[in-house]
Amino acid sequence: MSKADELYIQMCKDILENGIDTKGEKVRPKWEDGTSAYTIKKFGVVNRYDLSKEFPAITLRKTYIKSAIDEILWIWQKKSNNIKDLKSHIWDEWADEDGSIGKAYGYQLGVKHQYKEGEFDQVDRVLYDLKNNPYSRRIMTNIYVHQDLHEMNLYPCAYSMTFNVTGNKLNAILNQRSQDVLAAGNWNVVQYSALLMMIAQATGFEAGELVHVIADAHIYDRHVPIIKELIERPTFPAPKVTLNPDVKDFYKFTVDDFKIEDYEAGPQVKDIPIAI
Fold it and tell me: Residue 163: in which H helix or E strand, if any?
């Protein structure tokens, strides 16, 4: 069993056993048939992953690690808000006829801001601080920009990263306002673990801990039987995920710079109903 499996199973059991059911409440999401999509939820879930020990991919079912990395590069490296720059189709339903998702995600990371040291976008500011003032307690990003929310086709779910250097390790906290535990339970963890690995290597540190803070961790009503089956599956050791040591520039990393070995996992969960 990987550590990610252990934490995922614990989180799901805690939500099912101790969570609050929103049935009957006024909720925004709807199922495709127009009925309200209720959830069982827990507030303030915190999971810690030590990347120096293993890469946090679950094995209950396979997470498509390279697709997750492609999306995080789309947001953080390309700073794009257009699905034409993305290989997968997970954002298609939120894109307009030109492929744009509005002033969301990568767009916000690419906006330049004036600092005492000069003009930077948020990603370049992180890289600058980690190279020039690594023990700063102000190294963070935020893409939940209220003045632009009306121009976002989807409000950011994972919205803030705070980086912290301790010794020779780069750690980070990922803040997420909401997470569909079945549909995206391990996706964001894999993405931001890969991001932490890239930024650590580009700034001369070792990847340390990723702390994932979820304000509203929920299981949708129609997902409950699927989750119950999923968390009873056999598990396997964590895969080995390594990064090409020759790449030192964050903007030069590609998906192919990640090597994934010994990833054994259970079958996919197919046809997951998605609430919109």
Answer: strand 158-166
β 20-21/258-261 pair status:
unpaired
Neighbour tally for 192: CB within 10 Å: 23
Helix, strand or coil, per DSSP, at residue 96: coil
SS3 174: strand
12 catalytic, yes or no? no
Q: Are 235 and 33 in contact (CB under 8 A)?
A: no
Answering whether pTM is above 0.85, one says yes
Query: Annotated catalytic residue: which of 157, 183, 247, 255?
Result: 157
Measured CA to CA, the distance from residue 64 to residue 186 in angstroms comes to: 10
Distance CA 60, CA 5 (A): 7
Over its length of 276 residues, how does the chain's per-residue pLDDT go in tens digits? 999 999 999 999 999 999 999 999 999 999 999 999 999 999 999 999 999 999 999 999 999 999 999 999 999 999 999 999 998 888 888 899 999 999 999 999 999 999 999 999 999 999 999 999 999 999 999 999 999 999 999 999 999 999 999 999 999 999 999 999 999 889 999 999 999 999 999 999 999 999 999 999 999 999 999 999 999 999 999 999 999 999 999 999 999 999 999 999 999 998 888 888
Could you write out the DSSP letters of every residue in 61-78?
S---HHHHHHHHHHHHTS
